[in-house]
Amino acid sequence: MWLHLYSFLLISGISITTFAQKNKYKIATLSFYNCENFFDTIKSPLAYDNEFTPSGKKHYTRILYQQKVENLARVIAQMGTDKKPINPDGVTILGVAEIENKNVLLDLIQHPLLKKRGYRYIHYEGKDARGIEVALLYNPAYFIVETSKPLFVHLPGHYTRDILWVKGKLDGETIHIYVNHWPSKMGGEEKSAPYRAAAAMTCKNHADSILKADGEQKIVIMGDFNDDPISPSITKILRAKGNIDEVTRYGLFNPWTDLYKKGIGTLAYRDAWSLFDQIILSYPWLHKKQKGFFYYQAQLFNRPFMIENIGKYRGYPMRSWDGDHFRGGYSDHFPVYLTLLKRVN
Question: Which CA distances in Å does 319 have to 9, 266, 313, 331?
């Protein structure tokens, strides 16, 4: 398998003209996508998902579900394949949020647009009241999982999504990935801020424990944080810096801060854009002169077919649902992805 992997990556290596000399590079693509209510049509005995059934108020039939799978597969299949540097094999590692269970993940990775990539997944059932969880999809030709577990976020009075931690080897290099979906702003930003702070602290404490035990590590913190890159949960608790030159050893870099300050976002509400969907990297990813993968660039994936072209949401991400009406779109969030490069001698 590794001989096949190495051969493929050599073939897919590209010349990056922005560097002083032309080099060949291996490419890995890290992505995150909030899939907006990716439910199956079966009533769960453990969650309040009645509306996403054929007899529920959304009249969510098998036909609508299959359309949802088709739409998500179309987006995922194209990410990272249409803008340089191109990875012909698409997304390497994909964190997802608002998925109901392993059944929807299986249907997604078995879709004809994605099946040939051989994606596998990591998912744990949680205690979220609506039954929506996070998961990690990965291409086993690039990434080998070593261990994983859900991290429980303690909130007084109710449950939220667990944080998924996955440790594995990316082309032989140890990395740690955290997939997050922090509590929403329901009830108001000020009232709900402590909930997101609790989620941020849960993630930060676990990452710090790894750094304390093993020294510097390549860490990826991705998710729908329900906060922007300049929010206290990101800047004060995770301590992620938007300026790469300010990131010190054991620190975190947030490549989405500048985009947010330019008015670019992944979701819109009342004509205001937010950038809740982010992928944050630890310090060791930032050195270009290294043997392993390094950070190259960050991009939103917001192609024209994913943008609403009619009605009150015109210009927004084309969502699946407008209230109880199935709009037939993709998600109310745009996905984000990072390109990583690794020199090939």
Answer: 35, 12, 9, 4
